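pasting for ref
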Amino acid sequence: MENISLNVALLRRKVPNLTSAAKSVGLRPATVSNLCTGKIPVGRSEVRTIVALASLADCSLDELIIRGGKVEMIETGIKTLDVFAPLTKGGTVGLVARPGMGQLVIIAEVFYRLRKDGYKTMMLKPEGEHPEVDDLKEQFDVMDTDIEKVYEQIKANEQAKGIVFAADRSEVVNGEIFALQERLQKEGITSVTTFLLDLSGDSMDEELPYGPLETLWQFDIDLAARHMYPAVTPVSSTSTLLEDVYIDQTHFTVQQRARKLLRRYRELRSFVNVKGEASIPDSERQTYVRGERLEAYLTQPFFVAEEFTKQKGEFVHLKDALSDIQKIVDGATDTVKKDELHFIGKIQ
């Protein structure tokens, strides 16, 4: 298969309000979102969809479609993220969550880990009082409300291993983030990975809250309510890296099998909540047991939370996470108590 992908960065610059624009030409915003995140591979999309997107962006098909080249993954050591919705270096990740679901903890943890790995960490702080953001100060090399000063710091550190930059959705709505990204692109600065969060929580009610993204981390209220952190759901979180031309076959196969198992487990769990575990048909019990253990395994102790949880943070390499998940899906942990898989690193 030819290695092709959508030029998400170009689409983001050219069509800031993609939701309205997509609807105006008869495209479903969800379809466009899935194309941008790689959930629908470009090679399997309808020609008319790609043509319509090129028309919206006022560009040629050659400009809209990237051929060749491999997207680089940033490994965070966080199991759920690396396996199901990995970071694209130089891309944009959007966090979709309501307040209290752990998005700021995820930002703090990812930036802590990447900072230790040699990345420069920066944040455009929203104007006004945001005590919850102030608590993250120690994880950032630069935090400022002036986007011009943040730009100057990015320029000054462009030779670093990489730059990770966070901003609130309000800065996306007013167009400042798109303007900054376009400015950096024109100057050939491609090492900035952008994290967009939503302090208001409004993003959960919209189909494309940030416009096109390389990575989407969708938070789940049920996971958060049960303290299954990180509360990022593997079922609907995704990334362009998950297109099968970008990750190796083992990763792709394990990810697909695990997502299918978790999807069915969630359906069964809803049934159990009403009628009890005894109501699970014998034919589905194995699925329930394995889904329960996989969900427990995907929780993880964070370094930034050690003071509160009294548990040492854990870094799990992608190859170990994939191996462990394959064991769980294949039934090697069926006799292991689910609590023994809860908030651990890799399986010992």
